[in-house]
Design a protein that fits this description.
The protein has 323 residues and is of the alpha/beta class. The protein is built from 7 helices and 16 strands. The structure holds flavin-adenine dinucleotide and FE2/S2 (inorganic) cluster (FES).
């Protein structure tokens, strides 16, 4: 995938909701159809790219469907758009189909649960860069923490369709089994044959699950699971690439492990994004300047969200320096 394959668009488009279905305690799958110019703009969306969705006019759900801890905050007006990446993008003859997996964390994501088929949503995108697939890799390891799985599911689809020669394994970690944002049971396809996650198995990609409380799969952080795999599978590090998305502390651990093993690693970062189009400067990511002690601030929405793991100064790193 050449770097210039990441085309962005700051135009706003209308998307038609086709499915908005609950797939877990706090997780939903949203399917959107785009037509004409909107379909063209999103047809080549790269894994990791995202859209800014306007949820200012979405309704609140009935009171009994509002989690207690959100009951005060949800009444806030939704002024700013919210960024969401895609778990799948499918360009068909007459339309482009976008799939989003989202988690209820606050007022906008809660209101998103109320949109129904045939309703229209205004979206801007595709925005940001995306994961890049270098030519010299034979193994891709996809490492997801919590809600970091959607762009890696999209990447799994692209790898299986366009790079079947690359051996791919997915690792998905969460605090507990119920925090894994997947449709269906994680053991639907037998764990014994190494395909516990249907979302990756459907692309012929084996997967491993890790939970911090040991309720499913590996007992511990997903980086432990990744480390065990790297120890058990002796491969030339220069032929491996790690792609990761998830909470920043997890990304910092994956970056550290990749650096220790001399493996290239791309990470998709999250920042709160007030505009998503490079105007407000709210999404700064501190990055190292190569061969120097200097750092610069890059924009997560325009220079990212995907960064080379070696360049990012993680917030956890900065905090540990203060101790
Ligand atoms: C590039 C990108 C892609 C994303 N893709 C997805 C996706 O595929 N599925 C999904 O469920 N979510 C995704 N998110 C996160 C999503 O944008 C937020 O969950 C959403 O904006 C929350 O809005 P809210 O009003 O419901 O909650 P808010 O009240 O805005 O936030 C609730 C809580 O979540 C935290 N939070 C909100 N936004 C972010 C953020 N961007 N980064 C870190 N913490 C945040 C807040 O600090 C707060 O504690 C993505 C974010 C980015 C930047
Ligand atoms: S979100 Fe406004 S500049 Fe990045």
């Amino acid at each position: 995938m050449a770097k210039d394959a990441h085309k962005t668009s700051k135009t706003s488009f209308t998307a038609v909701v086709v499915v908005n279905k609950k797939i877990g305690s706090r997780f939903y799958k949203l399917v959107l159809h785009l037509f004409k110019q909107a379909a063209d703009a999103f047809a080549n969306t790269q894994p990791g790219q995202f859209a800014e969705i306007d949820l200012s006019s979405a309704a609140l759900p009935p009171a009994d469907q509002i989690p207690n801890e959100l009951s005060d905050r949800v009444k806030r007006e939704i002024i700013l758009r919210r960024p969401f990446s895609f778990s799948s993008v499918d360009a068909r003859e007459d339309k482009t189909v976008l799939e989003i997996i989202y988690c209820i964390v606050g007022p906008a994501s809660l209101r998103l649960t109320t949109v129904i088929p045939e309703q229209k949503l205004n979206i801007i995108g595709p925005l940001g860069n995306g994961f890049n697939i270098p030519d010299n890799k034979t193994t891709a390891l996809l490492v997801a923490g919590g809600m970091g799985t959607p762009p890696l599911q999209h990447l799994a689809k692209i790898l299986s369709e366009k790079h079947p020669e690359i051996y791919t394994v997915a690792f998905a970690g969460a605090k507990s089994k119920s925090d894994l944002p997947f449709e269906g049971r994680t053991d639907e396809v037998s764990e014994e044959i190494g395909y516990p996650i249907q979302a990756f198995a459907k692309y012929g990609i084996e997967s491993q699950v890790a939970t911090n409380d040991g309720s499913a799969g590996y007992n511990g952080p997903v980086t432990g699971c990744l480390n065990d795999w790297l120890k058990a599978n002796e491969k030339d590090p220069s032929e491996i690439i790690i792609y990761a998305c998830g909470p920043e502390a997890m990304l910092a651990d994956v970056a550290k492990l990749a650096a220790e093993k001399n493996i290239d690693c791309q990470i998709s970062m999250e920042r709160r994004m007030a505009c998503g189009i490079g105007v407000c400067q709210s999404c700064a990511v501190e990055c190292k300047v190569p061969d120097s002690n200097e750092t610069v601030y890059k924009l997560c929405c325009e220079d990212g969200p995907v960064f080379n793991a070696k360049e990012v100064v993680f917030l956890t790193e900065k905090n540990s320096h203060k101790l």
